[in-house]
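Whether sequence alone determines local backbone shape is best considered at the level of individual chains. The sequence in question and its structure tokens are set out directly beneath this paragraph.

***
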Amino acid sequence: MPTWLEAGLWGLLGGGALVLGALVAWFLRVSDTVVASVMAFGSGVLISAVAFDLMEEAAKTGGLGPTALGFVAGAVAYLAANALLARRGARHRKRSGGQQPSEEEQAGSGMAIAVGALLDGIPESVVLGIGLIAGGTVSLPVLAAVFISNVPEGLSSAAGMKRSGRSAGYVFGVWTTIAVLSGLSALVGYVTLGSAAPEVIAVITAVAAGAILTMIADTMIPEAFETTRTWTGLITTLGFLVAFAIEQV
């Protein structure tokens, strides 16, 4: 199988976890505690991937200076885009309760929520494609982190969409589109950066890492803490430990 196609399929698999979560939310009643717990666990898994698979590799390849600049740039870019989308109704896009506005309550919020969900997923997918450039095979810890974190994200957000009155066509249209775009992002990341200098790949990896960590702090952990409260830290720690153990195997 061509490596570029493999990159796209791995990205599609990671994005497909969002559709899986949405299916569970639409057809089953999952308690808020379970959703929040998995969200906290996924946060820990992603934090481990950011630290050991993305930032460490970027620093080894491009040096601390470029890596730090890329990391901060990714965080700032995500923060700015997230703030813009929040003003248009996407602030609570990962919430499973009644926090998401309906289209009647805020016109254009549906599109903002969809774009916000895409914003959350693209950095992860690009990283999967870049990982194939460096090692020739997908990084299992990164893939596990993306998949584990995407299931509760799709579940929680889709439950919130359903409660705000959005149709099944909208909900599954959003997540299916994002899954396909995730696959394309991984593919494009591999194809466009395949001949790039190691320093360029390091900076882009750090940008994605900064965006992912900011996303975790801004959206995933607050959603988890709202329900799991004092257990959030422990559950997140367990997620980190599992991902770290996968890295050591």
Notes: Residues 27 and 159 are 10 Å apart (CA to CA). Residues 32-62 form the longest helix (31 residues).
